[in-house]
Amino acid sequence: MLIGVFSDVHDNLENLQAALAEFKSRGVETLIFCGDFCSPIPSREMGGGFAGDIHVVFGNGDGDRFAITGVAQKMFPNLILHGEHAELELGGAKIAVTHYPFYAQALARTGDYDAVFSGHTHQRHQQQFGDCLWLNPGEVLGWQGAPSVAVYNTQTRTAEFVELA
């Protein structure tokens, strides 16, 4: 299974649309968003712009969680909000998700997961802890460099960074 991993949109709808198009073109089946929509507007774009499930954790920049939750509940059942963290089993892989890298690193070191995904730093990062891959896909925003996402393959347990044009 191919999983699209992305983070830190910060209301950049143009780059978000590019990310969703990239995921579709690569045959991604489900998405994991590691936090920081900022406003509810990107949640509408996400929910309406991708047909599969979109698993979401909140980040520190998600100021109006009430409105984001309302968008998910009323308009887009494929937008699955998990709160501050998530534990998922997708394509046979056990995955933990958090916005924060310090939690992600601790989770990756436990050996309980095949992959742990985080965001927050706006920097791409990939590190192996035993059999667990810790991945930060970078930022959709494009504030600290080229905007990027990642695609995680549950069969090979590997990830590829994808820069957005």
Describe this structure in words.
It contains four helices and eleven strands. It has 165 residues and is of the alpha/beta class. It has a single domain, classed as 4-Layer Sandwich (Purple Acid Phosphatase, chain A, domain 2). The strands form two sheets. The chain has a six-stranded mixed beta sheet. Helix 3 links the parallel strand 3 and strand 4 (79-81). Helix 1 (13-25) packs parallel to helix 2 (41-49) and helix 2 runs parallel beside helix 3.
The SS-based structural class is alpha/beta
Number of helices: 4
H/E series, N to C? EHEHEHEEEHEEEEE
For the biggest β-sheet, the strand order reads 4-3-2-1-10-11
| Count of distinct structural domains | 1
The gyration radius over C-alpha positions equals 14 Å
Shape: globular
Classified by CATH, the class is Alpha Beta
Q: Quote the beta fraction.
A: 25-35%
CATH topology: Purple Acid Phosphatase, chain A, domain 2
Percent helix range? 25-40%
Distance between the termini: 24 Å
Q: Could you give the count of β-strands?
A: 11
Question: What integer is the average pLDDT?
Answer: 96
Low-confidence stretches: none
CATH superfamily: Metallo-dependent phosphatases
